[in-house]
């Protein structure tokens, strides 16, 4: 077993990049933990926030920390208490590490644990050759699921969780925003029996992808009156459910107006500034709209549901991948993200894992 490894560390409590090392210690595991050889890891929007050192990061992160929480790899060592995993198991990891003791953990809601620890954030993560995590935070992968696909469970799982909360079977569903998470929500809605999925975005290229991933109708909300179009399609009633991936005030208010009375609005996208509801009386209260948010993924329901979506006819992995890079080339991947290139950027600690 190697003693040293390559990895990317956030070293300074302030705006700064990642620092590449080739002599980090291979993590030592605790009794309840597994050591994972990382085959693929993806860069998250939250990693960029940590590099830029926003208020969220300042509250949570204590550098130096190895970032990276979207991961797939193989278990190569286990602590002595680990019974339900074995060496060679292929796994992905849940970022939300629950305490197991609090009200939420004891009442079936560990994903919103009150003392949550965050993999690759409050503890070292996966931008490295090896990473360690508590074994009960690992999800076993099907043998035929590629590591690149498995890396999507964590980030896109929020979209699938949104679809679960929208309870889409038999319903007309509006998906607001068609980046990778929105595209996943579109395909999940179709997989779980939505009668019709309407997707909207401001970019036509994303709407084309939404069609390929199962959207029945797409609208460029910058170029049409979305509320009028939705009314036309639904005999003036509105959609049964709306899933917002944008976190944008205008889009949220428009989606509320697209909903039928007693419809359900699920918020997945995180606003970057305060959001005002323009007409709470008519858009929400008088029409008995249910407004809810989702955080992370249900452990493990969302993961199992997402596995079904991946196997289904609508999900297209190549539409959600933005680029593949060797770990050492992380600056190139970050540059693509900062340029606004769509799709997830993947890093591979072993260059031979990069799919050609
Ligand atoms: Zn993430
Ligand atoms: Zn807890």
Total domains: 2
Structure annotation, total helices: 13
Q: What's the overall average pLDDT, rounded?
A: 97
From the alpha-carbon coordinates, what is the Rg to the nearest angstrom? 21 Å
The counted number of beta strands is 18
Q: What structural class should be given to the helix and strand makeup?
A: alpha/beta
The CATH class designation of the largest domain is Alpha Beta
Q: Please name the CATH architecture of the largest domain.
A: Alpha-Beta Complex
Termini separation: 29 Å
Question: What is the makeup of the main sheet?
Answer: 7 strands, mixed
Q: Could you list the spans in which at least 5 consecutive residues all have pLDDT below 50?
A: none
Helix percent reads 25-40%
At the fourth CATH level, what is the homologous superfamily of the largest domain?
A: Medium-chain alcohol dehydrogenases, catalytic domain
> What proportion strand?
25-35%
As for the CATH topology of the largest domain, it is Quinone Oxidoreductase, Chain A, domain 1
Ligands bound to this protein structure:
zinc ion
Give a structural overview.
The protein is of the alpha/beta class and 356 residues long. The protein folds into 2 domains: 4-151 and 316-353, Medium-chain alcohol dehydrogenases, catalytic domain (Quinone Oxidoreductase, Chain A, domain 1), CATH 3.90.180; 159-293, Rossmann fold. It is built from 13 helices and 18 strands. The protein has helices at 45-52, 55-60, 103-106, 147-150, 153-166, 180-191, 204-212, 226-233, 249-258, 280-285, 301-311, 317-320, 330-339; strands at residues 4-10, 19-25, 33-42, 65-66, 70-78, 90-93, 96-97, 117-118, 130-134, 138-140, 172-176, 196-201, 217-220, 239-244, 259-267, 290-293, 321-326, 344-348. The strands form 4 sheets. Strands 3, 5, 6, 9, 10, 17 and 18 form a 7-stranded mixed sheet that branches. A 6-stranded parallel sheet has the order 13-12-11-14-15-16, with helices on both faces. It is globular. The mean pLDDT is 97. Residues 98-99, 101-102, 104-105, 113-115 line the site of one zinc ion (ZN).
